[in-house]
Amino acid sequence: MIGLLGTVVFEVSSDYVKTFDDFSRETHARYAKHDVLGVKPIKQFLGPDLDKIKFKIKLSAAFGVNPAQEIKTLRSYMTKGEAVTLVVGNKSLGKYTIESINEAWTVIDNKGNIVTAEIDIELEEYITTIPKIIRKIQKKNTKVNITKKVNATKKVKKKNVVKKSKKVVSKPKVTRMAIFTPI
Asked: Which InterPro entries does the record associate with it (predicted)?
């Protein structure tokens, strides 16, 4: 086995050939730009972006493949938004969604069946879990916000206490508190 995309297996044998060519992978970083008056913007690293993969698949009935069925399977993954595992060799590259399919039916028989087809396919990485570090930050921020609220409430209550010696009652002071929500 050369690899697979969902249930579509890429392999070569004496009666069967289904392979891919021109495999390319793009990896980008995400940045935010903060405009500052009179000077160049400040750039801030946000984290890695989703990987994108492109490749071509050549399908031919002469090599034991049903091009129409393979195209139907790939199109189904795309139209349903289904995330499928991409494996090359024995290494899983993760889950990906099919973003686009470009089909070229190069040979069609006298009954209208696809004999040979070439497909350009574009995939985008699909992430479903939040990394542990983000979860820790979210928990920490939630605890900090709760502590700030409790401390602010205690301060307001202390200021409202009647001082017996002077018999003066102070009015409650409103404190403004910034609440930071986790990312």
From this structure: Myoviridae_GpU
The answer to whether residues 6 and 84 touch, using CB atoms and an 8 Å cutoff, is: yes
Query: Cα separations (Å) of 80 from 36, 75, 122?
Result: 43, 9, 15
pLDDT band at 171 (very low <50, low <70, confident <90, very high): low
Separation between Cα atoms, residue 26 and residue 11, nearest integer Å: 24
**Reduced 3-state DSSP string for 69-114:** HHHHHHHHHHHHCCCEEEEECCEEEEEEEEEEEEEEEEEECCCCCE
The pTM (predicted TM-score) of the whole model is 0.67
Which tokens sit at 48?
A: 């890695």
